[in-house]
Structure formats: structure tokens, C-alpha cells
Amino acid sequence: MNKTRMLARECLLTATALAMSTAAVVHADDRLDFEVQGAVTPSCGLALSRVRIDLDTVAASELGAVGDGSRWRGTSFTGVDCVGATKASVTMRAAAHPADPRYIAPVGGAQGVAIEMRTADGQPLPPDGSSPVEFSWAGGIPALAFQARYVRVGPLKAGDAVATALVQIQWE
Predict the structure, then answer these.
(1) Average pLDDT in the 123-133 region?
(2) Bridge partners, residue 166, by sequence
(3) How far apart are CA 99 and CA 7, in angstroms?
(4) What would the mean pLDDT of 128-142 be, rounded to a whole number?
């Protein structure tokens, strides 16, 4: 037998042996199982990502003594494209007033005043970022309504008193 024929025969035997060894490993009933985990959570978007509460001009005489407050003024965040959400848990983070951490410290020329926040149904909303207030609705479009007012916390000085707060919403 010549060398070319012998080499071809060895290649054929090697290919046949390789095919047989591969066939022995793969069985017709072999299978691979996948385990999939996860969940779809409720969600809502917001019609506006920023709302404003205008406390208007308040006369110092309306804040006669420490603890006195101005009229409550309100606004709300409105949910859009809500799927499965019937509740919301809301926290607020802002600079706490040093005289009373339940209130927001305003910036501006005014002194002796703080800003108090609450839900429209009266749940206090402190600026600590960790004390949630709860909202719920049976269906339809959710509205997360809030109110704010000035509260006297010390000796008054007239001037601007404005603040910004970050609100975090967890939909359930």
C-alpha cells in the first residue's frame, strides 16, 4: 500500500472514531433546564417631575407666637401610565431647620420661620428622607396631594423664605 493511501485510511479511521466518541456523549434525551426568577412590579410615571407650592406673602403679624402657622397651601403630583399600582409610599429629603427638625429650613433673608409639610389629609411629612407617608387609591388616576405653610420657630425677621425638597415615591 502506498503512503498516500495509508494516510487517507488513517484519516478516515480517525474521523470515524471521533464521530463515534462524540455520538456516545450526546443522547437523544439529553436536556437543559432553565430556572427563571423575577417579578413584574407596579409602576407609575408622573405628569410633572417638579411641582411648586406658592405660600404667597405672609404678614409677620400672622405668625404671632412660636408655633403659629400661616394658611396651608397645596399642590399634587399626578400619576400617569400606572400599571398595577394602588399605593405609594413617599419620603421627603430637605435641609431640616435647626430649631425644629420636623420642618424645612428656608433660605433667604427671613429668620424665625420654617416650612411645614404634610399630605392633604394631614399626615406630617418631615424632611428626614426616612419617614414615609402612605397614599392609596382604588383605581383611576392617582394624585399625591401635599400642603405647606410657614411656621414660626423663633424671633422674626422679614425677608424671602424659599426651599427645595426631594420627594421619593415607591409605587406598590
Answers:
(1) 97
(2) 93
(3) 96
(4) 92
Residue 35 identity (one-letter amino acid): E
Question: Do residues 116 and 103 make contact, with C-beta atoms less than 8 angstroms apart?
Answer: yes
Q: What's the grid cell of residue 58?
A: 405672609
Q: What average pLDDT score do residues 114-118 get?
A: 98
C-alpha cell at 72: 396651608
The 8-class DSSP code of residue 41 comes to P
Q: Contacts by 130-133 with C-beta closer than 8 Å and gap 24+?
A: 130/91, 131/91, 132/89, 132/90, 132/91, 132/170, 133/89, 133/90, 133/91
pLDDT tens-digit profile of 59-75? 999 999 999 999 999 99
Nearest to 119 by CA among 169, 153, 160: 169
Compute CA distances 106 → 66, 109, 165, whole Å: 16, 9, 10
Strands in the chain per DSSP E: 43-46, 73-83, 87-93, 96-97, 100-104, 111-119, 133-136, 143-157, 166-171
- Whether residue 139 contacts residue 47, with contact meaning beta carbons closer than 8 Å, is answered with no
Phi-psi region of 158 (alpha: psi -120 to 50; beta: other; left: phi over 0): beta
Q: What is the pLDDT of residue 152?
A: 97
In angstroms, rounded to a whole number, what is the distance separating the alpha carbons of residues 113 and 102?
12
Closest Cα to residue 106, out of 156, 68, 167? 156
What span, in angstroms and rounded, lies between the C-alpha atoms of 125 and 94?
Answer: 11
Mean pLDDT score of the chain, rounded to an integer?
87
